[in-house]
Amino acid sequence: MSQEQHYSFFQSVEKSFDKAAAFTKWDKGILEQIKACNAVYQIKFPVRIGDTVQVIEAYRVQHSHHKLPCKGGIRFSEEVNQDEVMALASLMTYKCAIVNVPFGGAKGGIKINPRNFTPFQLEAITRRYTAELVKKNFIGPGTDVPAPDYGTGEREMSWILDTYMSLRPGEIDGYGCVTGKPVSQGGVRGRTEATGLGVFYGLRELCNIKEDMDRIGLTTGLTGKRVVVQGMGNVGYHAAKYFNEAGAKVICLIEWDGAIFNENGMNPDEVLMHKKATGSIVNFPGAVNLKKNTDGLELECEILIPAALENVIDENNAPNVKAKIIGEAANGPLTPEADEILNKKGVIIVPDMFLNAGGVTVSYFEWLKNLSHVRYGRLGKRFDENMNMHILQTIEDLTGKKVSEQERKFIAHGADEVDLVYSGLEETMHAALHEVRDAMIANPQITDMRTAAYVVAINKVGAAYEQLGIFP
Fold it and tell me: Which residues does substrate bind (predicted)?
């Protein structure tokens, strides 16, 4: 076994950081500060489960305080450990910097399998964890704002909010202590699909850049491009759905218990209905079951989207990957060794650091909504609709022509919350992609997007520290 294979997740992140740091102007001390995790909180607390008391292990890591609050999800998984949470927290710092979201990176995790607990027990664990975070000031709208992650969702976020508000009564901005909440509790419309939609926006923009598509022998646009998606969770499903609706062919969907293939493409909505009915995507009508679910990663396709867990493509299967573009919808789906192999093959790897930043981008919009105490679109929607109708009526009067009822509704429509969220997300993903490409163009020695993304992030975080006056 090579030494490379023993890298932990956090060490892999550090390795990528060090590679990019060589292309920046910052001295060693500043780079060490940017790289370090500022605060690591390991918690063990007792919770009564049935007739027994169970000691729960949990973490919250604040990677960077160059901007506050810190921001990052909380995952429930038996695989949670300090190294993983530190790695994910550091990625959050760089991710927020790239997409210009003014947060430091953080991450949390509770080492449990949520399937082994009843909703009542999960609520007790979540509330106790929140209380522990409050004790040490590791949660709050101006200090640290958690969000959903693997194994958590709106339900857990509402428990966190309620616990926080009960311990901080009267805090006027208290609803901003956590994002990913139900809309009825201060959440924002569009948050559920945000990460998958962000993946779609980022890859669609890349596929519209002729220079990049010429380099890998593809035409511009998404029409007809073959897409393979690993993971039919929230992120993978939405990414697959938007690609299908845009005219791409989703030829393979991969889950933990199997993979299905149809060269003519599949409708992810129909696959999801099949999964809900049978408990699995396997045996989907019109599709072929692959022998091994990981075989799907090696299929002939234009775009491969790993949207499951980390390290699914390593030095063993990377030589067999035939995709021209890999969009990292999951966190860390490629090992550093896989990165090297695929870069040498000329594959465009669009890194997780900004491609899956849709979630934190829309979380930022939710946080702003909570601090402003007003729903997006509430103040301007009706005015815009009235003005649009007035302009349309004037044009119809001047021309003597009438538009159809369908066109009238489309033209008159004023932006509501979800329209504004989608628009802001699309702008964010487009700007981030071009910023990373510009970093590659500015320095021809940078040959891959991951290194360019780190360079962009390091420069922004370094500039923030410098402006704070922390360094003489």
Answer: 71, 95, 363
